[in-house]
Design a protein that fits this description.
Elements: E1 2-10, H1 28-42, H2 48-59, E2 71-76, E3 82-85, E4 98-101, E5 106-113, E6 117-121, E7 124-127, H3 128-141, E8 155-159, H4 169-176, E9 184-187, E10 190-193, E11 207-212, H5 219-240, E12 251-258, E13 261-269, H6 280-294
Helix pairs in contact: 1-3, 5-6
Length: 295
């Protein structure tokens, strides 16, 4: 078994609770679930059937031949402080608050793969290095707990030192393409997916675009900006999603902390809906306005 310990730090308040849904607790199943989400999002070149087979080979599944997860996660969260925090920071007069782990809290994630590599297809494996890179890219693009699509629950790695780098598009591209399929490129100051490798129809939320926005002095300033933009545009998006269909937001906003300040990273995922939307083109235009307001 291969194991690595990542020492991490919360960048923004994190709303993650235990079994009672109230007391803050870092939960290994929740972290593994986020890893699965971003593994799927990265692998946008796969047909859905192949995606599910590979995912089950790595993370386990309920099928007879799928077995248990090959990824093991343990968390050391000794003496983490938490506070009451408003999950809607743009509503300054709101008394609505949830318990959240404070920014700047340290904890460790022990990440293990049961063997050197996992066979996912005849000529394809998932290695321990792949797992490490998946965790790193997840901490950059995603967050953990409630409101993670809107900047909350962002974390950063502080050890091992070799994994601490200035976060920019070149580094993100390097991580994305480390999985063996060169399907992401940089153009016009953004990363985009090159899906010429795939000839089918992909109806799941894979990565389409990644952008890094301007610098903010504090994470509170950035959370407020995200909250205001969400209020201004997402309500209109929901209003346009009539009873003919609904969609989860394909715009995922995380917050990174570099040496000189805080930056938003906006990842645009493929839009999927449970039913056809009446005004999907209008919804997509509003999504662009949401991103422009933050970038």
């Amino acid at each position: 078994m291969n194991t690595i310990t990542f020492k991490c730090e919360t960048v923004t308040p994190m709303f993650m609770a235990g079994a009672d849904g109230k007391k803050p607790e870092l939960r290994a199943p929740s972290i593994k679930g986020v890893l699965r989400f971003w593994w799927r999002a990265i692998n946008g070149y796969l047909e859905l059937k192949d995606l599910r087979e590979r995912e089950a080979a790595i993370f386990g599944g309920s099928g007879k031949e799928q077995g248990r997860s090959k990824v093991i996660i343990n968390i050391d969260q000794t003496n983490l402080d938490y506070e009451d925090y408003n999950p809607l920071p743009h509503r300054k007069n709101s008394n609505f608050k949830l318990k959240a782990f404070k920014s700047g809290q340290g904890f460790s994630v022990n990440l293990s793969l049961i063997s050197d590599c996992i066979k996912v297809k005849e000529n394809e494996t998932f290695t321990f290095d792949n797992l490490c890179n998946l965790f790193i890219i997840t901490t950059i693009l995603g967050g953990f707990g409630k409101r993670s699509r809107r900047g909350f629950g962002s974390i950063r790695i502080i050890e091992p030192q070799k994994n601490v780098r200035e976060i920019n598009l070149s580094y993100i591209l390097e991580l994305l393409n480390s999985f063996g399929y060169i399907k992401y490129k940089i153009r016009d100051s953004e990363i985009y997916s090159d899906l010429t490798l795939n000839k089918g129809s992909l109806d799941y939320p894979y990565i389409k675009k990644i952008q890094i926005g301007r610098k903010y002095k504090t994470y509170n300033d950035l959370l407020f900006k995200i909250g205001m933009a969400t209020h201004d545009f997402c309500d209109k998006i929901l209003a346009s999603s009539t009873s003919t269909g609904r969609m989860a937001s394909p715009v995922y906003i995380s917050i990174i902390k570099n040496a000189d300040g805080y930056y938003p990273i906006i990842t645009t995922l493929n839009t999927t809906v449970d039913k056809p939307l009446a005004n999907i083109s209008y919804s997509l235009k509003l999504q662009d306005k949401l991103k422009e307001a933050i970038l």
